[in-house]
Amino acid sequence: MSHLSDLPLLARGKVREIYDLGDRLLLVASDRVSTYDVVHPNTVPGKGAVLTGLSAFWFDRTTHLVSNHVVSYTDGVPDEARGRGVVVRKLDMLPIEAIVRGHITGSGWKDYQQTGRVSGIELPAALQESQQLPVPIFTPSTKAEQGLHDEAIDFARSVELLEPVAAGTDLFDSGERLATRVREVSVALYEFARDHARERGVILADTKFEFGLDPTTGELVLGDEALTPDSSRYWPADGFEVGSTPPSFDKQFVRDWAVSSGWDKTPPAPEIPADVVAGTQNRYEEAYERITGEPLSAWLERTSA
Question: What is the C-alpha separation between 88 and 69, in angstroms, rounded?
C-alpha cells in the first residue's frame, strides 16, 4: 500500500487534496475548515471523515438519478487516508456549480431582499427569511479560483459557459441541452435528499453539486462531494421558525464566530477557539448520525478493513 507522500499531488484545495493514480484519482478530505474562502490554521477533528462518509451515503442511494465518480473507498486508498479518501474516475469537470435552493436564506435571501429575484428567477412577494419556496430553484454559480468568491449567475449565463463543453460531446449538442440536464438532475437530487432528511428530522435548505462529463462516453456524472455539511445547509426540523436564521449542522457555527471575532475576512485567518472547534465537530457528527442512522465510528470501521 502506498503512502500519501509517495503519490503525485495534483491539487490542494481549501479542504481536499487530489492525487494522481494514473487512470484514476484519489480524493482525500482533510479536517481543515475555511470561512469566507480562507483556511483557518487549526482543524476540526473528524470533519474529513464526515464529508467522505456522508457523500458515500448519498452517492450509493442516488445512482437511479445520475451516475457518480466513485470507484472505491478502500482499494487504492492509503492507510492514513482511510475513512477520508476515495478513489474516483477522472472527469472533465463542468465550469459551473449547480446550486439548488429549497428555502430562501443566505446569499439568496440577500439578493431577494434587494431585487425580489435570485439568479434571475422572480420569487413571490413578501417571503420571510428561511421560508420554504413553492418549488426548489436552480441557482448556478461560476467556479472561482481559490481565494476568490463564486459569482451567482442566471440560467442563460450557465448555458453560455457550458456551450463550448457541450460542443465537444455526442450526447449534448448545445449548452442549453447540457444546462437543462444539469438543472433537472440537480433538482431531482435535492428533492430526493430533502425528503430523506426530513424523515430524519432534518431540513435540507439548500445544497451545491459539481458535475463532470465522462471523457469516454460524454455521460453526465456527479463528482466532488454530495450533500455534506460543507456543501449544504442542514437545519434541525424541531424548533424551526420562519423569519429567523435557524441553527445549522454546518460550518455556520464557525462563520458566526468569525464574524463576531472582528476578523476582516482577509488572510491570514485566526485560530478557532477550542469551544468553537468542539461545537463544530459535534454538529458535523450529529449531521452524519441523523441522516445515515449510524454513528461515524461505523463508517470508520467499514473503511479501515
Answer: 5
State yes or no: pLDDT of 144 exceeds 90.
Answer: no
Task: Report, as an integer, the average pLDDT of 246-272.
Answer: 91
User: What is the model's pLDDT at position 145?
Assistant: 65
Residue that wins the pLDDT comparison between 57 and 35: 57
Is pLDDT of 279 > 90?
yes
CATH tag, 92-236 = 3.30.470.20
User: For 32-46, 137-151, 217-231, which range has the lowest pLDDT when averaged over its residues?
Assistant: 137-151
Record the cell numbers describing residue 48, joined without a space: 474529513
Q: Say whether domain 1-90 belongs to CATH 3.40.50.12780.
A: no
pTM value is 0.94
Kindly list the domain boundaries of the chain, sorted by start residue.
1-90, 92-236
